[in-house]
Write a structure and sequence with these properties.
This protein is an alpha/beta fold. The protein folds into 2 domains: 121 residues, 3-Layer(aba) Sandwich (Rossmann fold); 154 residues, Rossmann fold. The chain is 44% helix and 19% strand. It has 12 helices and 12 strands. Strands 2-1-3-4-5-11 form a 6-stranded parallel sheet, sandwiched between helices. A 6-stranded mixed sheet has the order 7-6-8-9-10-12, with helices on both faces. Helix 1 packs antiparallel against helix 2 and helix 3 packs parallel to helix 11. It is elongated, with a radius of gyration of 23 Å. The two termini are 33 Å apart. The structure holds alpha-L-arabinofuranose (AHR). The site of alpha-L-arabinofuranose (AHR) has 12 residues, from helix 3 and strand 9.
Length: 333
């Protein structure tokens, strides 16, 4: 707020010049100081549709009309860029730092700097491994292990309903950015299920980095080794779209009834269109609309009210056999 006070003070002076005493505006300094909260937001990048929606949602929620001044930085998938942006926010003496960490490790020193500067840090979307719980004020995001559990439970039930529970199931696994919370959670759930089901085999495990292009490339290489595939477990919609394109080019049908069962995460609009067509059999939601949660927490902190440290967002899932056009049209993203 300190920076802002200086800005407001200058504005007051500028407004005062050229106005007679009667014409002088209401005390601008007091009003603006009460209203505007300065937030620095370091976003990991723009690797997926999900990420673009998340950025737009945070930007539109932390708007001036809503009482904020937002400094935004896109780290372009580089952790160093995120650290540099957070350090810049500390130097600018913002009121809050919000960031979506690329991976879980490597944040202790910079968060220590924020703590020393008394700036509350709100971690969103992905989680961090930290030596000291006091290094961040709150976390808002998904329970990624739970998302993975929903996916493997759905697959188990689906195979059972089709009488395929004892069949040899060959799974291709396309992972997200290695070391990020969604990758760690969704991978852990699948690997646990593979251990529990001796007839499930992981025939390939490759990194698609949460992008359509990388998933298309790695799926293409897997298909050169084998086309005997029952399930492709992709860790986001972009990867699912890339993998499906590669499989279709190779002559495989993505269809839970007569072909490859594709599982995806995010439930973006395009991902749900693929679900409606059956190309994606199951799409587990990962909710990108985190802006209102951030706003609520900051406003509570401003009023000195207690907050929850860990805030998981409610999420659902969509199955090819029950999704409808109406369901997709009613969604906010
Ligand atoms: O951290 C959320 C994940 O990151 C989403 O599943 C993915 O689409 C994004 O890039």
């Amino acid at each position: 707020m300190k920076k802002l006070i200086a800005v407001c003070f200058c504005l007051t002076i500028l407004f005062s010049i050229g106005c007679s005493k009667e014409e002088q505006p209401e005390p601008v300094l007091g009003n603006m100081e009460d209203k505007l909260i300065v937030v620095g937001f370091s976003q990991v990048g723009a690797e997926s549709e999900w990420r673009v929606t998340n950025t737009e949602n945070v930007k539109s929620t932390l708007s001036e009309e809503n009482g904020y001044v937002l400094f935004f930085d896109d780290a372009r998938q580089e952790q160093e860029n995120q650290i540099r942006a957070i350090r810049m926010f500390i130097q600018q003496d913002v009121d809050y730092i919000v960031f979506s960490p690329k991976v879980e490790t490597g944040w202790n020193s910079i968060l220590m700097e924020a703590k020393e500067a008394n700036i509350p840090v709100i971690v969103i979307d992905r989680y961090i491994e930290q030596q000291d719980e006091e290094l961040y004020t709150a976390y808002i995001g998904s329970d990624f292990y739970k998302e993975g559990e929903i996916a493997v439970k759905w697959l188990t039930d689906f195979l059972r309903k089709r009488g395929r529970e004892d069949e040899h199931i060959r799974i291709v696994h396309i992972q997200g950015t290695i070391g990020s919370t969604p990758q760690l959670g969704r991978t852990a759930a699948l690997e646990a299920a593979v251990k529990q089901n001796p007839n499930w085999e992981l025939v390939a495990q490759e990194c698609g980095d949460f992008t359509k292009a990388k998933a298309y490339e790695v799926m293409g290489s897997v298909l050169k080794q084998t086309k005997d595939i029952d399930v492709v477990y992709c860790e986001n919609d972009g990867e699912a779209l890339g993998a499906i394109a590669a499989m279709e080019e190779a002559g495989l049908k993505c269809d839970p009834n007569y072909g490859v069962i594709v599982i995806s995460f995010d439930a973006t609009r395009l991902g749900l269109e693929y679900c409606l067509s059956g190309k994606i059999a199951l799409n587990v939601e990962c909710n990108p609309l985190q802006g209102p949660y951030i706003d609520r927490i900051i406003k509570k902190l401003e009023r000195g009210e207690p907050i929850e440290k860990i805030n998981y967002i409610d999420e659902t899932y969509f199955d090819f056999s029950t999704i409808t056009r109406e369901i997709i049209d009613k969604r906010d993203y």
